[in-house]
Every structure is written in C-alpha cells, then in structure tokens.
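# nightly structure sweep
# worker-07 picked up a monomer target from the shared queue
# config: single-sequence mode, recycle default, output format = structure tokens
# input follows
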Amino acid sequence: MDGNDNSANRILWSELPDVVRAEVEDRLGARVCAATTQPGGFSHGLAARLEIGDGRDVFAKAIPTEDGLAAMYRTELETAARLPPTVPTPALRFGLDTHGWLVAVFDYVPGRHPRIDRPDELSAVLATVEQLTIALTPCPLPDLPTITQNYGPQLQGWQKFAEHRPPAGLDDWSRRHLDELAELESTWTDHAAGETLLHADLRPDNMLLQRDGTIAVLDWAWPCRGAAWIDLVALAPAIAAHGIDADRLIATHPTTRDIDPAAVSAFLCALAGYWAVKSREPAPPRSPRLRRYQAHSARITTDWLRRRLGW
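# output follows
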C-alpha cells in the first residue's frame, strides 16, 4: 500500500489562521511563498513543505490544540526537541503553541520513502534500525513511560475476542486458535522490559531515503522505553508483506538474533491482535483509509504468525 493510498484529508497551510501563519513567518524571518502538502500518513493535521522567500525550505506540522490528536503532536514536538544528534532524524527548528494551534517546524529533508522490495534500500532500513538501537540505548529520555505502560491495555486484542464473541469475518485459523492466541499474547509484557528509547511506529512511510542512501526517521509521536528488539519486530510485518523471509531477518539481524524466539512470537501475536481489533473500529472522518491499512496489517501479521508458529 503506497503513501497516496493511505493519505488522510490533511489541514492545508492556507487553513491556518492568518495570525498563526504570520507568527511562523516571523520565526522563520521570511515569507512563505508556497506550501506543498505531504502525501501519505494517517493524521489529518498539517504536514507540508514550506518554500521560503529567501530560498530555504522547511517542513511544518500543525494541528488545533482542541483536536483529539493534539496530544500526539505535542509528544512528537517534545520528543524531537530532546533527541540526541546521533539520531538520524530531521532537526526541530522551533515549536509554537499559539492562538489555539500547535506548530512544529523541522529541517526539510529531501527524499522518498524506501522501497522494501529493493535489497539495497532494505539494507539501508535495517542499518538504520541498528543505528537507532545504538544511539538510543540507554534511553536518553529516562522519564518516558515504558512500552507496557503505554500500550499494555491496547495489545490485548485476542484476549478481548476470547472473552467476548469473536467478530464476524475473523479468519478461520484465528477463530480455531483463539484461546491459544490469547494465552500467547498475554506473555508479551514478560519480555518487553528494557532501557532503549523506542520509536514504536517504524514503518516505511515514517522513513525517508536520502540522496546519499541513508535513512531519516520521522514522526516520533509514540516514544517509550522498552527492549531494543521491539522496533524491528514491529517493522518486520511490512517487510514480510514483500515476500521477504522475516523469520530469517529476525534470526540474523544484530538487534534480534540473540532474542528468545518465544519473545518475538508473543509480541508478534500481540501486534496481530491489535490490528485485528483496530481494523474493525469506525473509520475516522478525516482518515477514511486508516481501517483498510489496519486490516491489511492484520492479514500480513497473522499470516506470518501462522507460519512461524506452525499451528
């Protein structure tokens, strides 16, 4: 699924109040001549390349402070401001909380989303995951919540299905093994503790392949502390979707090769259950394709889990 298929109905630069746009331009020291909305993603907030009159480009994100996603934008802003310079991510220039809007302005990074089906680009992605692990262990933001604190209640999808009637349309394999999936899922938190700062939302469309072949990692809206291997396992279903042997990748990558296979299976199980639940919720009005993406993720992750477990 490409970024255009996943696009939300984003807020445009022209829709920001005049006083907010003027304040951004004041901080930039020049007028904004043009704004190009970024395709892809699922948030409806502003995400745009701003071309400035003095020839510079920046990247801006913005959302009303009363919006339900404002807390996520605030987290991203606060996290970006504190990341060490060894993290491959666009630098935050400034943030504003003004006139009912939250705005973050970053360096503009030219590039495109990496294509996982190209071996050299997949290698760049995997090298970046290793680089993140090194740069973010121990966690440079020790006050962050743990992954269990942040996502423990959400990663219980199979248990919820087992306690209630399984939903219509649940695939036959999941239905037959529902109790076993719920039991396996319940163990993921036993393995998740760690002191690495996790991105917790690594996807190809949260990465940019730059001209020099390196990867910039975007959108630090879901940070938490946890075991270093979790980000790669969370990314691996997107890799498996291209027919790549994700189990072999997990078994050989420096971040995951020494991890108990039972830990990987438990977390993968929890991810599959999460997607299965989320894909059945009503679609957000300004992100109509989100549930389709989540249903796709549920299928890919469950298929990999089925092959991995051999049930």
